[in-house]
Prior knowledge:
Keywords: Cytoplasm, RNA-binding, Transcription, Transcription antitermination, Transcription regulation, Transcription termination. Monomer. Binds directly to the core enzyme of the DNA-dependent RNA polymerase and to nascent RNA. The protein is α+β, with helices and mostly antiparallel strands. The chain folds into 4 domains: 3-132, N Utilization Substance Protein A, Chain:P, domain 4 (2-Layer Sandwich); 138-203, CATH 2.40.50.140; 205-280, K homology (KH) domain (GMP Synthetase, Chain A, domain 3), CATH 3.30.300; 349-413, Orthogonal Bundle (DNA polymerase, domain 1), CATH 1.10.150. It contains 15 helices and 15 strands. It has a 5-stranded antiparallel beta sheet with strand order 7-6-5-8-9. Strands 1, 2, 3 and 4 form a 4-stranded mixed beta sheet that branches. Strands 10-11-12 form a 3-stranded mixed beta sheet, sandwiched between helices. A hairpin with a 3-residue loop joins strand 5 (141-149) and strand 6. The chain is elongated and about 125 Å long. The chain starts with a helix and ends with a helix.
Amino acid sequence: MDAKVLIESFAEFARSKNVDRPTMIRILEDVFRAMIRKKFETDENFDVTINADQGDLEIFRIREIVDDNSEDIWDLDKISFTEARKIEPDFEVGEEVYEKIELEAFGRRAVQMARQTLIQRIKDLEKDLLYNKYEELVGEIISAEVYQILGREILLMDGEGNELILPKGEQIPKDRFRKGDSVKAIVHRVDMSNGNPKIILSRTSPVFLERLFENEVPEVYDGLITIIKIVREPGERAKVAVESYDDRIDPVGACVGMKGSRIHAVVRELQNENIDVINYTENLDLYVTRALSPAKVSSITVNEETKRISVFLKPDQVSLAIGKGGYNIKLASRLVGFEIDVFRELNEYEEEDVDLMEFVDEIDAWIIDELKKTGLDTAKSVLSLSKEDLTRRTELEEETVDEIFRILRQEFDQ
């Protein structure tokens, strides 16, 4: 393979990968200089000129002519007077010899290796460009097309044919995709695996929800409304605390939109995830009250040392505070940064009730904790439920629930 064919084939390959001309020339020169070093030990006294457009390559070895008896005759950048005269008969000692080195002088095997090295360098460059491109896009929302569905992940293609990965754990549980579907997600992170960039997407990250709000709510995008914090149970429920420094703007109303027009687009994208948008405040009691919406809180006690908040509600508000699957209270706790314990307010009749802690000798403490997490803190509050309801709420074994009922009923029978 001569220099023209080698350079032209490389240049065509480089252009197909959108490599700019200066980078292409630099790679060519690096590879040819590596060939020179391998054959001549050094490339310091070599001049390499490349014209990629024309496929021209010129390599000149530059050496100073010294006397045949000189001590420097063995230096790599020196040539004896006798050897120089063989190249050009009128050379004199002290002059420089520019000897042109043809590509063939390196041998066919070295040229083939150079071709493979050039292609590999472009592929490595392509990987670096891809890594850098998506590293800058981390946290940004993109769209890609599904091209293969695997058990633990979905493979997608971007507009340039690059492979992206949406792992099972980064998918909303209700997500169902087919080949060819367009998928929105954020760039979650970019890893390097065996020298190859691995681009991981996410639809479960709170950042994904934040970017969707930016797309649907101009005031958020423009910075007039600030999203303070987002907590999510993907596909089930989310709570978004927002704030505006402009008193003329209602941050909650702007995010929801007229008749819910803005938030509906976000909800649809998240597989009907229930989104609560609340006004952020530094008043902790008010913030907790808003976080537990739609439940109406009667009173709140804060323990800063243990980072726990006791919330008291009327009996009919307890289930609203806890929410389906316990998501409402879990998300409210994460949003305010305190563990929230829910308690029922007792009326006069219920004052005859017995606190569950009175049964700690008969019922294991961890079981009482499980009951309290669901707002059941007295014997009568537990007995007011059916066996099925209590099993579903607490996920306790049926035998355990039966024993709890037996112990509590025995108290009132007495």
